């Protein structure tokens, strides 16, 4: 008889809570039904029955639109993430805090893009992160005169290395340099915090795959734009899981028609099966959707196969994120009159 | 006809009217030539404007792409990505076609979409960016057509007025004055004959 090591009560508690929280998520069937709704008001009616009820009912009826609903969806997503942070402590809390920094990274990216475009940014354009969980002063960054000043405000945070990239940004005049570095810093911090976790291999596998696949999608996207190899390399995540510098360099250097065989030679070949046409024709959004859909199904599988592991909690958070993306697609698609077929093709099911 | 009534039937007026008629005939020919040139230019521009239907189709396709990007990324995220697109520079000039001042839009710098970070947003930008250039060219052609058609109509009215009112009126006046002058000449001739007869009778 195989004996399993006993799990700490804290770990059991958080896994149990995640099992309970999982039941609050919309099921694939719910998403399918909502995607078939004739209009936005039917979707709102559907949302009033679930976890979003309180926030959705707080929106005045004349202000119900895709933007206000997306705000609610992301507020709920952030709330779900930080609820997990709240109920943990020690190394677990540190890890989940680091994991939730993806919202912080996203907000910094948005601010830098707006500053690059010399426009002003409003609060509604940012993901609402509770002040106590962020070291970044977003209102100050948003109010900064220009991009230099905005980046300068990151001096006391983990994103301080961005300041050194200002010269490079000015040379290429693209925020992709900052975006790549932000992702690198995020994953480095996250990777560092995995080490002390129980069942770290499963978590490393989940995070590592996401990191590597994001990198591969990024390379394909940047190659499609015919950007110089040096700029592509600077815009990538500098941490690898099952990839290495040689593979990355060969994908960057390869001609578009020879990229696919190289991808098939990597650990991630199963994610690219059936995507030959998309890769050769540079259909990046389709590649991205197909890969993330595979990840979505994989995370579902993790929840089924590893219900007593910490990776279950991580998979739950990932599914929360996919739910927010799906619901954003549904509410925005409905408002814009996107056909049912097209809407279905962009959902993660 | 008012010309005929008002004009004094003198040789001086007749000469002046004949000069005027010659001048107006020349003017009419020039206006006709201008009208033909304008018609030619309008026809050429109409060929450019005919792509509108096709362009509208392309715009609808690009909008579908944009809808997809909006849905996948959300308004706020896509809005921030849109700001990474390098601004397009368009300058407006004017030049003259047969005396008509028409606008010309010149794209000095194309929109740089290479910084758009997301794949789906880039695809939408890739479809929309060349369409914006086409829309600018189409609006330029439409504005030109509008100006040229205005001028064409005005020239046409002028030619018609000359052909149907001014020239016939002057021609009638000339004919009237010629008639009057002929009658006066006959009167003068008869009077001279009578005078000569009276003198001859007195001498006899």
Radius of gyration of chain B: 34 Å
Question: End-to-end span of chain B in angstroms?
Answer: 50 Å
The shape of chain B is: rod-shaped
How many distinct helices of chain A? Answer: 19
Helicity level of chain B: over 70%
Order of helices and strands of chain B: HHHHEEH
End-to-end CA span of chain A: 38 Å
Largest interface comes to: A-B, 48 and 29 residues
User: What percentage of amino acids of chain B are in beta strands?
Assistant: 5-15%
Q: What's the tally of helices of chain B?
A: 5
Based on DSSP secondary structure assignment, what is the total number of beta strands of chain A?
0
- What gross morphology of chain A would you assign? globular
Do you know the CATH topology of chain B? Helix Hairpins
- Which class of secondary structure composition applies to the elements of chain B? mainly alpha
Taking the sheet with the most strands of chain A, its summary is: none
Task: Explain this structure.
The complex is a heterodimer of chains A (349) and B (204). With 349 residues, chain A is mainly alpha-helical. Chain A has a domain of 112 residues. The mean pLDDT of chain A is 89. The model of chain B has no long low-confidence stretch (mean pLDDT 90). Chain B contains five helices and two strands; from the N terminus they run ααααββα. The chains are: A mainly alpha (349), B mainly alpha (204). The interface between A and B is large, with 48 and 29 residues.
